[in-house]
Amino acid sequence: MTYRVALAFVATLAVPAFAQDARKGSITAADPWSRATAPRASVGAGYLTIRNDGAQPDRLIAASSPRAAKVEIHTMSLDNGIMRMRPLPNGLEVPAGGEASLAPGGNHIMLIDLKAPLKEGERVPATLRFARAGTLTIHFKVGAAGAAGPEAGHGGHN
Ligand SMILES: [Cu+2]
Ligand 1: distance of its center to the CA of 35 in Å? Predict the structure, then answer.
């Protein structure tokens, strides 16, 4: 009896640490975050880690947000010494049992023609569409303009 009570207590403590993660089927969208944009900027970028714990690869094929006229899945690469970004025509593969990382300097979600600037502290909704898992709504947590990564609650690193 005492043992059961103890187990139940442990289970309560094991509430997910990352409440901002979103899950659908085999796909988990972890730590979606973004950066505040300048007042007249027309574009913003969103980052996250997409995990696939299924036995089949999946693919992020489209995205949308009520905050932007258009959302694209972009990659970044060095072209004659200049970093350029371009849309991934076939989306982004998330390998079976693996993950796809969207981070500054690499793949990202591009919010094009923002309806209003992204402000630090707000959560920007977006819907991701996967070939297998279907649609998944996430919220990009907006950090400071120069944020290097998702902030971990209070006292996040800058
Ligand atoms: Cu881009």
Answer: 13
- Find out whether 75 and 110 touch, Cβ atoms under 8 Å: no
Q: How far is the CA of 56 from the centre of ligand 1 (A)?
A: 28
29 touches 46 (CB < 8 A):
no
* pLDDT tens-digit map of 24-70: 999 999 999 999 999 999 999 999 999 999 999 999 999 999 999 99
Q: Distance (Å, rounded) from C-alpha 122 to C-alpha 96?
A: 32
CB contact at 8 A, 45 and 87: no
Fold (CATH) for 24-143: Immunoglobulin-like (2.60.40)
Question: What is the distance in A from the centroid of ligand 1 to the CA of 116?
Answer: 18
Q: What's the 78 CA to ligand 1 centre distance in angstroms?
A: 13
d(CA 144, CA 150): 10
Domain ranges for the chain? 24-143
